[in-house]
Amino acid sequence: MNNIVIRNAVEKDLLFVENLINELIASLNNKEGIEKDIAINNFKDMLKDSNSKFLIAEIDNRVVGFITFIIRKTLLHSGLSGLIDELIVSQDYQNKGIGQYLVEGVIEQCKKLGCCEIEVSTELENKKAIRFYKKLGFEEKVLFEKDI
Predict the structure, then answer these.
(1) What is the pLDDT of residue 56?
(2) Distance of alpha carbon 145 from alpha carbon 75, whole angstroms
(3) Per-residue pLDDT tens digits for 2-57
(4) Residue 39: how many CB atoms within 10 A of its CB?
(5) What's the CA gap between 13 and 3, in Å, rounded?
(6) What is the pTM of this model?
(7) CA distances from 34 to 14, 95, 107 (A)
(8) In the chain, what are the domains?
């Protein structure tokens, strides 16, 4: 697919992003504490936060996916660290390389910003995502999480 455009999100993307948020929430095994209204407010806040990044994938001016990530300092790294939070591609456009283009967009931005690593996490049950990230060169490591 040569007509894929990866770009930074803008507020007018909200309508399209909202549809993808619905798909993302529907795909989750554990929806506890997940609310669409909060996600929409977070989208608006992230656009204003210089450490939060939000990339959009478009085909023929139609938003078909997005990826969110943050840039942060850590104590032990010489450069910044990128952390991918969410990646969603509309069901109608999955398995067409769009997710890979979005991750490559993150890698490109992280390099420009001086990051020395990019991290991502997914649920243990999400074997498809695990295969996807491994295919893109991510190494499987342990991450612990505690809801509070």
Answers:
(1) 96
(2) 20
(3) 689 999 999 999 888 888 888 888 877 777 777 888 888 888 999 999 999 999 99
(4) 17
(5) 19
(6) 0.88
(7) 18, 26, 27
(8) 4-135 (3.40.630.30)
Amino acid at 115: C
- Cα–Cα distance measured from residue 52 to residue 45, given in angstroms and rounded to the nearest whole number: 9
Rounded to 5°, angle at Cα 130 from 138 and 19: 105
Chain-centroid distance of CA 82 in Å reads 11
**The residue to which tokens 């770009």 are assigned:** 7
DSSP the chain: -TTEEEEE--GGGHHHHHHHHHHHHHH-S--TT--HHHHHHHHHHHHH-TTEEEEEEEETTEEEEEEEEEEE--SS-SSEEEEEEEEEE-GGGTTSSHHHHHHHHHHHHHHHTTEEEEEE---TT-HHHHHHHHHTTPPP--------
List the 4-8 sheet strands across, edge first: 4-8, 52-59, 62-72, 80-89, 115-120
- Show Cβ contacts of residue 40 under 8 Å, excluding neighbours closer than 6 positions: 14, 17, 18, 21
Neighbours of 102 (CB within 10 A): 25
What's the CA gap between 35 and 27, in Å, rounded?
13
